Amino acid sequence: MGCPYEGPNVNPVKVAQISQRLLAMGAYEVSLGDTIGLGTTQKTRNLLRVLYDEGVPFNRLALHLHDTFGQALVNTASALELGITSFDSSVAGLGGCPYAKGATGNVATEDLVHFLHGSGLQTGLDLDMLVDIGDWISSALGRENSSRAGRAMTAKKQ
Fold first, then answer.
1. Which of 24, 40, 99, 109 has its Cα between 20 and 30 A from that of 118?
2. What residues contact residue 109 under an 8 Å CB cut-off, 6+ apart?
3. pLDDT tens for each residue of 65-91
4. What is the pTM for the complete model shown?
């Protein structure tokens, strides 16, 4: 959707071609990264429609959405509507993109799970346990927890 090397508008046809090549080489799944968080609902839908039209099977795709501009969950919702069911995330929103100044971490696992459960989807994950882990690792690293759901649920416990 956006790339520190190719700019803010990556060509979806090129993404489809690379995805097809990776799958043909034996990759079990291709995780499409929005590593600098420039994705929007429109960009997400457009990318996935092109991939669909180019014959890339959605059951072999995942999305890796950074939350730099707070769009990771709405992009997740758009992708879910189109049939994507695999999403990368990180506890407490840890991470970032070392080669893209200003990019934040992945969508927080706690936020993603809260969203999915609130949408009636089952993940098999224990949200309370994820919140505890996010709070623990954030404290251990001496940084603020980036998960909104994590911060809210931790505050309720105190």
1. 40
2. 89, 90, 91, 92, 125, 130, 134, 147
3. 999 999 999 999 999 999 999 999 999
4. 0.92
